[in-house]
Amino acid sequence: MRRRFFIPREAVTLIVSATSAIVLSLAIALVALVPNSNVIAAMFPPWWDAATIFEAAAAAGDPVRVGRLPWVVIVRGDPAQLAKRLHAAGAFLVMDSRFFAGCGFQ
Predict the structure, then answer these.
(1) Which pTM does this prediction carry?
(2) Where are the domains positioned within the chain?
């Protein structure tokens, strides 16, 4: 007689819930990381000084405001080119600014 492998129902529920949460989180992150707005939050290297960050942001678009973290800047510009220009100016991450509402941005 063959022995059957049994997984408790609670373990299956936990695995399915965790997998669903991970997939949903990744989907939200992908939407946030593909900015298609004319207002984008850009994160620059934290070791840069404020003047360098502002100059880099200004080279890519119009800086709107600086966040609570001094290396996060909200920039307005042409949605077709803004993300590329921010990356070229030194930003290591650009996101739709709506996802920074909890960081002091409106």
Answers:
(1) 0.63
(2) 39-103
